[in-house]
């Protein structure tokens, strides 16, 4: 199997350690590709909308984005990690997710995404891990992913692993290992399920694209949906 990991920071801190614990169960059976932000996606999205209106190859950062997206589409499991910065995912993670706006369901979602599984790993000092995870989950769900596992860790008193109490270390370790086991036992030869919320989003977007394509057959998004067969009876899930 193939796993792609998007690390929301280059820092090898608590989030990195938790991610490494999660991956232990997969090391012997998976080909794992990792990206570290912002190194592997160093530029901000500037909102030019070229990816949406003209095609993703027209993005000024296409060389970076195409490489990472190809890895995501080829993966059986996607792992997204980020510590919480002011109650949200890191700026580098947000910048990366902005670059993939064209893959949101209202535009040109990749059919492969509807069959994938993902895990989000976040932590912070105090509260904020849940809202950081929500930032990432929002994009993943609009890419078409339904089966998403989430780990949120709340640290108290320090953000350095070695300075955490043994009790806190054991608590975080047990929690991440439980999530790891859950996803390690999955049969990845079978596609993930598509839930009703995702299907509802798809059908709303389908109605919109059907109307747009009827009025302007050359509009890129509507044309893409028509080519996929989604304006007819074809669906991206099985």
Detailed description of the structure:
InterPro entries: Flavoprotein-like_sf (IPR029039), FMN-dep_NADH:Q_OxRdtase_AzoR1 (IPR050104), FMN_Rdtase-like_dom (IPR005025). Residues 1-148 form the NADPH-dependent FMN reductase-like domain. GO terms for molecular function: oxidoreductase activity. Pfam families: FMN_red. This is Flavodoxin family protein. The structure is a single chain. With 238 residues, the protein is α/β, with parallel strands linked by helices. It has one domain: 3-Layer(aba) Sandwich (Rossmann fold). The chain contains eight helices and five strands; from the N terminus they run βαβααβαβαβααα. It has helices spanning 14-23, 50-53, 62-74, 91-99, 129-143, 166-184, 196-215, 220-228; strands at 2-7, 31-36, 77-83, 117-125, 147-155. The protein has a five-stranded parallel beta sheet with strand order 2-1-3-4-5, sandwiched between helices. The protein is globular and about 65 Å long.
Q: If helices are DSSP runs of H or I spanning 4 or more residues, what is the number of helices?
A: 8
Widest sheet: strand ordering: 2-1-3-4-5
Under CATH at level 1, the class stands as Alpha Beta
CATH topology: Rossmann fold
The percentage of residues in β strands lies in 15-25%
How far apart the termini lie comes to 20 Å
Rg from C-alpha positions? 19 Å
Secondary structure class reads alpha/beta
Query: What's the story with the biggest beta sheet?
Result: 5 strands, parallel
What CATH architecture label applies? 3-Layer(aba) Sandwich
Q: What number of structural domains do the residues give?
A: 1
Number of strands: 5
Helix/strand order:
EHEHHEHEHEHHH
Mean model confidence by pLDDT = 95
Any idea what the CATH superfamily is called?
Flavodoxin domain
The portion of residues assigned to helices is 40-55%
The stretches of 5 or more residues where confidence is low (pLDDT under 50) are none
GO molecular function, one term: oxidoreductase activity
Domain NADPH-dependent FMN reductase-like: 1-148
Protein name: Flavodoxin family protein
Organism: Merdimmobilis hominis
């Amino acid at each position: 199997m193939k796993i792609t990991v998007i690390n929301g920071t280059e820092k090898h801190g608590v989030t990195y350690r938790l991610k490494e614990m999660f991956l232990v169960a997969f090391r012997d059976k998976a080909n794992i590709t990792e990206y570290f932000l912002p190194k592997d996606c160093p530029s901000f999205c500037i909102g030019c909308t070229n990816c949406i209106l003209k095609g993703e190859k027209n993005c000024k950062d296409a060389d970076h984005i195409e490489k990472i997206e190809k890895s995501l589409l080829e993966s059986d499991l996607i792992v997204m990690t980020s510590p919480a910065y002011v109650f949200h995912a890191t700026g580098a993670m947000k910048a990366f997710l902005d670059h993939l706006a064209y893959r949101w369901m209202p535009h040109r979602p990749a059919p492969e995404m509807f069959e994938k599984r993902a895990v989000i790993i976040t932590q912070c000092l105090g509260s904020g891990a849940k809202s950081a995870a929500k930032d990432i989950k929002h994009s993943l769900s609009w890419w078409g992913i339904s089966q998403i596992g989430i780990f949120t860790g709340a640290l108290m008193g320090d953000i350095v692993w070695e300075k955490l109490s043994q009790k806190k270390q054991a608590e975080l370790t047990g929690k991440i290992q439980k999530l790891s086991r859950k996803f390690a036992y999955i049969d990845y030869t079978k596609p993930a399920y598509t839930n009703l919320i995702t299907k509802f989003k798809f059908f709303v977007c389908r109605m919109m694209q059907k109307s747009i394509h009827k009025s302007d057959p050359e509009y890129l998004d509507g044309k893409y949906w028509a080519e996929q067969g989604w304006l007819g009876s074809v669906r991206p899930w099985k």
